[in-house]
Inverse folding.
């Protein structure tokens, strides 16, 4: 999985490709459990780029995008747009965003292209 940072923010946002960015922390049990799911999805959906952003390393990006929402928090970027992934109605107790929830989101995004 790629790293999302202030250095590549503009390139990712302006790319003509869907990117999913997840703000995480190594101190967050939900984030730790989410990463293997994201790695599986990355292999499953090769047309989508997956990025991780460590909130402790990228404080400015976290302040700008995540604000006070906590982690994990996901965003969809590309084609000069950014939107926050809605929190699930019934969050997964292990990882917040379940694999099924993210698959449905990705499928919807790919259909919308």
């Amino acid at each position: 999985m790629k790293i999302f940072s202030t250095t590549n923010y503009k390139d990712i946002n302006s790319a003509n490709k869907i990117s999913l960015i997840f703000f995480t922390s190594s101190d967050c049990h939900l984030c730790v459990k989410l990463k293997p799911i994201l790695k599986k999805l990355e292999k499953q959906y090769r047309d989508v780029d997956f990025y991780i952003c460590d909130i402790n390393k990228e404080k400015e990006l976290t302040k700008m995008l995540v604000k006070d929402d906590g982690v994990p928090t996901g965003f969809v970027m590309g084609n000069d747009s950014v939107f926050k992934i809605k929190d699930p109605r019934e969050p997964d107790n292990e990882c917040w965003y379940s694999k099924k929830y993210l698959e449905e989101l990705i499928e919807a995004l790919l259909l919308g292209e």
The mean pLDDT is 96. The helical segments are 9-14, 29-44, 59-66, 99-112.
